[in-house]
Write a structure and sequence with these properties.
The protein is built from 13 helices and 8 strands. It is of the alpha/beta class. The strands form 2 sheets. It has a 6-stranded mixed beta sheet with strand order 5-2-1-6-7-8, with helices on both faces. A two-stranded antiparallel sheet has the order 3-4. Helix 2 packs parallel to helix 4, helix 2 packs parallel to helix 13 and helix 7 crosses helix 8. 40% of the residues are buried.
């Protein structure tokens, strides 16, 4: 009996449609004048990914909650600067360009029309869905994202890599362990420790004062992990400088909770869905209707062609 290893591609969808929005001119509009640059850019990008990387399974992972309360409870500053409106009953409202927000439902409708799996789970970010699907996968995984946080999932032994768009969505950087070690001096799991030590203003993570990227990499090289660094703080014989020891010691409350915030979840309760890449649009009449309504005939046709085996 033989088994077929399936290649899984996971899209960090919001990250990619933001890239498409800023990479495709806003002059790309529907017949009624509504900008559809993000929609066209994302559909074309998915088509190129399918043609170039030939995934067997493809999942568009969604942010059902871009700023989960369980992360905010641990670090209140988490993504706080991106909040447009706080909510007591659901996800906080994120600041999104006025001409991008109306395009998101069109993107979702287009994915559904093609039959591309779209998965989001209440209380979790797309990163967590990606982390869970990556943990469950039995074959190679390509994670397509413009978010460096997902570098933590890179694992050569399990054929997990990140495809990171460099210019818009046209040029991809293939991120594997060799690239991570050359750039940051760490492996995949080490990247999460590096990120929480240095902090990340774009996510509202304060980091440890005085510990930048290079110092964090040196500490991880010397002590192996965040746990090893904390052990070194408690070891008077360790080679930490007095200033490093003091700053790390004073940052213990932050360091105690930061790993849960920074590390993606691997145990999200996912709904049942079919990840198989469709070989033709699941609902061709809906594809045609969307193409007509939004002036997306070219993008819809190109993606349909890319799906054909």
């Amino acid at each position: 009996m033989t088994t077929t290893t399936r290649r899984l591609m996971l899209l960090d969808t919001a990250s990619l449609y933001f890239r498409a929005y800023f990479g495709v001119p806003e002059s790309v509009k529907a017949p009624d004048g509504t900008p559809v640059n993000a929609v066209r850019g994302l559909l074309d990008f998915i088509g190129r990914l399918v043609q170039d990387h030939h995934p067997d399974d493809l999942v568009a992972c969604m942010d059902a909650d871009w700023r989960p309360h369980w992360r905010v409870e641990l670090i209140p500053s988490y993504k706080a600067h991106r909040v447009a409106e706080l909510s007591d009953s659901g996800p906080d409202l994120e600041e999104v360009p006025d001409t991008l927000a109306p395009q998101v439902p069109i993107i979702e409708a287009a994915l559904d029309a093609f039959g591309i799996a779209r998965v989001g789970v209440a209380g979790y970010e797309a990163d967590d869905v990606i982390g869970t699907l990556t943990a469950r996968a039995t074959g190679p995984v390509d994670i397509v994202t413009g978010d460096r946080d997902l570098y933590q999932l890179v694992d050569d032994a399990r054929a997990r890599r990140v495809l990171y768009p460099l210019k818009g969505v046209g040029t991809l950087q293939v991120t594997d362990e060799a690239w991570l070690r050359e750039k940051y001096g760490v492996d995949g799991p080490g990247y999460a420790d590096l990120a929480l030590l240095r902090g990340d203003p774009s996510d509202g993570l304060p980091g440890v004062p005085g510990i930048g990227e290079k110092t964090a990499a040196k500490l991880l090289d010397a002590y192996g992990s965040l746990a090893g660094i904390i052990a070194a703080v408690d070891d008077p014989k360790s080679k930490l400088t007095p200033t490093q020891r003091k700053r790390l010691d004073e940052s213990r409350p932050y360091l105690a909770v930061a790993p849960k915030v920074v590390k993606v979840a691997a145990d999200v309760p996912l709904p049942a869905f079919d990840p198989a890449l469709p070989q033709s649009p699941a609902r061709p009449e809906m594809v045609d209707a969307l193409a007509h309504r939004w002036g997306l005939g070219g993008a819809m046709s190109r993606l349909s062609s890319a799906l054909r085996p």
